[in-house]
Write a structure and sequence with these properties.
Elements (H helix, E strand, L loop, with lengths): L2 H13 L2 H8 L3 H15 L4 E4 L2 E4 L1 H24 L1 H6 E8 L3 H13 L4 E8 L2 H9 L5 E7 L3 H11 L1 E9 L2 E5 L12 H4 L4 E4 L23 E4 L2 H11 L3 E3 L5 H5 L2 E5 L7 E8 L6 H13 L4
Parallel strand pairs: 3-4, 3-5, 8-9
Antiparallel strand pairs: 1-2, 5-12, 6-12, 7-10, 7-11
Helix pairs in contact: 1-2, 1-4, 2-3, 6-12
Length: about 300
């Protein structure tokens, strides 16, 4: 099995069709079909199930594509590393993160300091499972996420199974984030009872993912009456500003949040510590750019 074969299989999976993949790769459909059969015979597995409705990956096929994408990414990084002319004029960093504004601040600082003629910075925002998978697959060099006392054992097991290691940036207690014009803004701290009349902002999580991975730090006996399930930070800010919504998070206020009038308040009686940190693959040596990004994270992840 070759790297080229893995790339072809990944393209078939992406296109969902042998013919579309063949067109994209500028090869013949019989040729790409023959290549897949050769890999299946070599590995003793079935990669795709073919039907009148199209093709679907088998469980073994999904595993092959996932592992293959990791190898393809590694090969691309090796190529980039040893191409001196590219290294001198272009830099690239791929990062995954949960919904943290300070991560955007850290990436913005990197961008402002860059002296390269060209660069590509990629920031993927998602929930815990997505961040872990993207780093494990090599799609991102590192990821930023939280680990709480309620899910620490579960998360450590996920890190171990995915071949990842966790590096702590900050440990603090959760706060409520609200707009400066929110009716509760005059209070120095809030209770869960205070929050009940207002919409709670929650980030969308795959239905198959365990609730223990939710980004929101909700107490076991707290069930908000009003919930806004959203997918990105912009929506969160809109709900806070226009609908008196609130969000749970670490005690970190980014410069962007300050400019938009977002403030934090401690939650009375809720002081379970939460850690935010970054993950990478075990034994992975960060690229100079990623190492600089981590230093930026340390600057902006101060409990303010």
């Amino acid at each position: 099995m070759t790297l080229l074969q893995l790339k072809y299989i990944a393209m078939i999976a992406k296109c969902g069709s042998f013919s579309k993949a063949a067109q994209t790769l500028y090869v013949t459909q019989p040729g790409i079909s023959k290549m897949v059969r050769a890999v299946e015979e070599e590995l003793g597995i079935t990669i795709f199930v073919r039907s009148s409705a199209g093709i679907t990956l088998t469980a073994e096929g999904e595993e092959l594509v996932r592992m293959g994408n990791r190898l393809i990414k590694d090969a691309d990084q090796i190529t980039q590393h040893f191409k001196q002319e590219i290294r001198d004029t272009h830099e690239e960093l791929n990062v995954s993160s949960q919904h943290y504004c300070f991560v955007i601040d850290a990436l913005t600082m990197l961008q402002k300091k860059s002296t390269m003629d060209s660069y590509t910075y990629k920031l993927l925002i998602g929930q815990n499972p997505e961040v872990i998978q993207q780093v494990a697959d090599g799609e991102s060099e590192l990821g930023v996420l939280f680990v709480g006392e309620h899910n620490r054992k579960f998360m450590n097991r996920m890190f171990e199974e995915s071949g990842l290691e966790f590096h702590e940036l900050i440990t603090s207690v959760p706060s409520v984030f609200i707009h400066k014009n929110h009716p509760l803004a005059a209070k120095t701290s809030v209770t869960f009872e205070d929050l009940q009349p207002y919409p709670c902002i929650m980030y969308d999580l795959d239905a198959d993912a365990p609730s223990i991975l939710h980004e929101e730090f909700l107490a076991a006996d707290f069930y908000p009456k009003k919930v806004n399930i959203i997918s990105d930070l912009y929506q969160s800010l809109q709900v806070m500003t226009a609908c008196n919504g609130y969000d749970f998070g670490m005690g970190v206020i980014s410069e962007g949040n300050k400019a938009l009038g977002i403030e934090k308040r401690p939650i009375e009686g809720f002081d379970q510590p939460i850690s935010i940190g970054w993950i990478c693959r075990k034994a992975h040596v960060l690229s100079p750019l990623a190492a600089e990004f981590v230093e930026n994270l340390k600057t902006f992840s101060v409990d303010t």
